[in-house]
Design brief:
The chain has 357 residues and is of the alpha+beta class. Helix content is 31%, strand content 24%. The protein has helices at 5-10, 27-35, 74-85, 98-103, 105-109, 120-127, 129-136, 154-160, 184-201, 255-268, 303-307, 312-320, 348-352; strands spanning 12-19, 39-47, 62-65, 89-92, 145-147, 165-169, 178-179, 205-209, 213-222, 228-236, 248-251, 273-282, 288-295, 336-338. The strands form three sheets. Strands 13-12-9-10-11-14 form a six-stranded antiparallel beta sheet. The chain is globular. 39% of the residues are buried.
Length: 357
């Protein structure tokens, strides 16, 4: 049923900017903004890739091409966009971009634009698996982990872990440079590859014990005072070893898994704001092992949280407007999200004409 004009007028007008607007992680935010009963949002997407499919979503009011976050023009360009469009709230779904936004928090807020993020340092730590491991060591349960430095006996590590190993780059996202060797020959091959990358690209790698069991994604939100607003766990039921983007997950409350995620967030000082934590509940000893965290953002599969009635953007806006926000202790179980990829067809002229701020 369409809302009447009277109902629409009652909603508070806001301008909401989503950066990395072409990525899958912003779809839940767009859906939540579209469904909001509290806010009448002008939705703006911005992305460094002008051909990103999500930029052409029909729910979007404006689209912009901005520089990559590593560019010196990123923040000046973003500030111009915020000023020109009178943006009230900004949310980023890109891991590398989020610490840069936190670093430039004062400049953004000087434009009367609000963002919900922890400190720059906490976000940078969350981006680095090596630093994260050391901060959490002896405080949160993690798989056995070793770092490539030329001094350790890699054969001994392989035998100690009974061949159940994964080789990971310590600073990356989206399942990049993660290797699951099937045997010792593959293990040695990937080690040589990692050592070559370490020398040529100055990248670090780690060897970690593979924890076999149910893998969970825990999505959380804390307010400006660090109070927990929600923490929901989802079980991934797809079978890929490397899940660059989870394509199948179901909301299932698993208390010990959630507690492990919250403990990691506490130690890493990832408050206020959203977090997305990966935990595996071991089939061997039934214990939850922390794997990694995406600090400062929701999960790409938060659509099932929105579908269960939790409006994540309303909560973010309420928190930033200093509205009273009550914790959400329960959520409908069994809501599953299935990500289905499809082509987005547009006119080439639409792509080339995307505005620049």
């Amino acid at each position: 049923m369409r809302k009447s004009q009277t109902e629409q007028i009652k909603r508070i007008p806001v301008c909401f900017l989503l950066t990395c607007g072409g990525g899958p992680g912003i779809l839940a935010q767009v859906e939540a903004l579209r469904m909001s009963k509290r806010y009448n949002a002008r939705i703006i997407l911005a992305d460094a890739n002008p051909a990103s499919g999500n930029l052409f979503l029909p729910e979007v009011d404006a689209r912009y091409h901005i520089p990559e976050c590593t560019s010196g023009d990123f923040i000046p360009s973003l500030l111009r966009l915020i000023g020109n469009e009178k943006v009230d709230f900004i949310y980023s779904g890109l891991d590398e971009e989020i610490p840069i936004l936190a670093k430039n928090r004062a400049l953004i807020e000087d434009k009367n634009c609000m963002l919900l993020l922890p400190s720059e340092q906490a976000l940078k730590t969350a981006l680095d698996k090596k630093e994260t491991f050391h901060v959490l060591e002896d405080r949160v349960l993690q798989p056995k982990t070793f770092f490539l430095n030329g001094l350790v006996d890699y054969g001994k590590i392989y035998n100690e872990l009974s061949g159940r190993v994964v080789i990971k780059i310590t600073s990356s996202r989206g399942g990049r440079d993660i290797y699951f060797p099937d045997d010792v020959e593959e293990y040695e091959f990937y080690l040589r590859k990692a050592e070559k990358m370490s020398k040529e690209q100055k990248r670090e790698f780690m060897i970690q014990e593979v924890i076999e069991g149910d893998e969970y994604n825990i999505t959380t939100l804390h307010d400006l005072e660090g109070k927990l607003i929600y923490s929901f766990s989802r079980r991934k039921f797809e079978k890929r070893k490397i899940k660059s983007t989870t394509t199948a997950a179901v909301i299932e409350t698993q208390t010990d898994v959630v507690e492990q995620a919250l403990a990691a967030i506490e130690v890493l000082k990832l408050k206020p704001g959203f977090n997305n934590v990966e935990v595996i509940c071991s089939r061997k000893d039934s214990k939850p092992y922390f794997i990694e965290v995406n600090g400062g953002r929701t999960a790409a599969q938060d659509m099932n949280v929105v579908a269960a009635g939790v409006n994540i953007t309303d909560l973010m806006i309420d928190i930033l407007r200093r509205e009273s926000v009550e914790p959400i202790d329960d959520i409908q179980q069994g809501i599953a999200s299935l990500k289905i990829r499809k082509d987005v067809i547009v006119n080439y002229s639409d792509i080339t004409s995307v505005a620049r701020p």
